[in-house]
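This part of the workshop introduces the protein records we will be handling. A learned vocabulary of local backbone shapes supplies the integers on the structure line. Getting from the letters to the tokens is the skill we practise here. As an example, a complete record with its sequence and its structure tokens follows.
=====
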Amino acid sequence: GGFYLVQEAPDHHEYFRIGDEIVTWTEPAELIEKARYYTQHPAVTDRIRRAGQRRVLEHHTWQHRFDRLFAHIHS
């Protein structure tokens, strides 16, 4: 259930809506800027945190991953 502020990676957009469910950064200065912003705007941070948690619980638990793996193996 934590707020996810993570260094940008090519596949993040495949799993999350950037800016709505997680927040990414590319340069250290951007990390500092975003950390300050989200620290000062707890309502925005909480909205993103809750949306990210919903996404993870609906699509990205270990159970989901194993279900997809076993479905692929058995197909």
